[in-house]
Design goal:
Structural class: mainly beta
Largest sheet: 16 strands, antiparallel
Distance between the termini: 43 Å
CATH architecture: Beta Barrel
CATH class: Mainly Beta
Number of strands: 18
Helix content: 10-25%
Shape: globular
Number of helices: 4
Strand order of the largest sheet: 1-2-3-4-5-6-7-8-9-10-11-14-15-16-17-18
Radius of gyration: 21 Å
CATH topology: Porin
Order of helices and strands: HHEEEEEHEEHEEEEEEEEEEE
Amino acid sequence: MKINLAVYSKLKTVYRFIYFLLGVSFLTAGSVDAQILNLPDEEDKKGGVHYSLVPVFGYSSDTGFVGGVVLQRFNYGDGRSPFLSNLKADIVLSTRADLISELNYERTRFFGRDIRSEYSVIAERYKRANYFGIGNETDFSSRLYNQDYYFFEKRVIELAARYRKGVTEYGFEGTFDGYIELGFSYLDASNRQEESLFAIEQPAGDNRQLLNSFGFGVIAEDRDSEFNPTEGYRYEAGIEFSGPYTGSEFNYAKVHLQLRNYVELMPKVLIAQKIQGTHLMGDAPFWKRSSLADKYGLRGYHEDRFLGDSSILHVLEARSWLFSLLEDEVRLGTQLFWDSGRVFSKNDSNRLFDNWKHTFGFGGAISIFNPDFILRGDIGFSDESTQIYIGIGYIF
């Protein structure tokens, strides 16, 4: 009997992913004291500080073996909703010397004022970062990929701050907010192989570059939960600027629109939908262009598979909590998803529905001693590759 090697490879990846989920579940169930440092004294989250610390591990052909920890710290104060402060940290190392670290801190009161602040720090080092060119129809070859044709070495540091203030309330619990945000980015892509596509094309921003940005926008939302919504919506529109007036080497503006909707289709089955569009005006570096294919959309393609001047993305997920343990203190769930979208560039057709890319997949989720803490894993399939994703919380 002949075995299709591509199918066999995907089956091995599925096995590894299931093994990862079982491993996380085992570690969580067997080492509670090491991971839940401070449990709530009352039901759910009526006050106090709650910690969740979970080790993660996995394997993929792109990164090799990876291992790290995810930490989330909630401070509910005197029961403030959705929280007083929320700290998330995600640190992962790979056997190929990649480092991926992200720290996010959010607070609903800013120096005693009703202003919500959010700060994030991202530090990454990729020995084999991806670059496939600009456009929706760029070529891909598994043979060239295995020969490092699409790789370059990348080091990134990103700092961001957002301040959000309520403008008005409407309906039952709806809010309309405005926000401003500041950003700083540094990228070093000076190391590359001479025969790589990155070295041949030398896209804008291909060396050591600094970028500062300023932006503002609005958010309208009415959801029953920020972490595990079962009904409602969240809509956001904003614009980001960078140029000489921000002390940057690039001059551009980028607008974005994101629509999220949540509907409980049947008991314990949620349909979550995200529609997102971006449009770039001006001269931006390649690493600030509209990008698709990551943990937020088109899961299954290689990271940053599609770069363009504009993009549109649609994500559809069916989520369900399957069963619970320890009187609902630990919950296990699953999700199925379908991602589709495309980018636009001067090399592509401008027809909206031409040449859309599609991926699909499934995943698992576990909530431990706090309904707001959710550890999620996804596996996505595309016509080019299979990818695994691990993170804190749902992607939207």
